[in-house]
Amino acid sequence: MTAKLRKAFSDINSGHWQSMVDTLAPEFTYVFYGEHALSGERHTVESMSLWWQRVFRLIPDAEFEPQEIIVSGGPWLTKVATRVRIGGPLPDGSRYDNVMTQFMYLKWGRITEIHTLEDTVVLQRALDRIAASGNAEAHAEPITDAPARADRTA
């Protein structure tokens, strides 16, 4: 499983994020925590594809470097925790450098849940720089297909 995850990140680094989308179960949840253009909750392949397209429009040369991958459980329910460094050049000449953690659940090799948490202060600063360079999408509403929750604050 660890080798498959490293390959998935390598594919994403090459711009081939579709291989990640292809491993999603028919029913899945992807949550990226925060309140920014990359946050939100998604449950469809269409929204995940739109999200990945946005990621690479905002940071075209993003690189994901897995630092640690922890796998537990059998193929009927696999739990995965990752710590990943993310980096890439920004339009103003600075560099984006952040750390992301993900918790994933898979059943028989298909992803049923992903919960992503990145340092949101560092991410928001990068999104602000991208927006200041003329890319308004950096401040766009999240791509989501989940109904609004009453417990979220505006």
UniProtKB/TrEMBL annotation:
In this chain, composition skew of type Basic and acidic residues spans: 138-154
Q: Where is the SnoaL-like domain?
A: 6-114
The record's section on Pfam families has: SnoaL_2
| Region described as Disordered | 134-154
Q: Which residues form a coiled coil?
A: none
What is the name of the protein in this document? Answer: Nuclear transport factor 2 family protein
The record lists the organism as: Streptomyces tibetensis
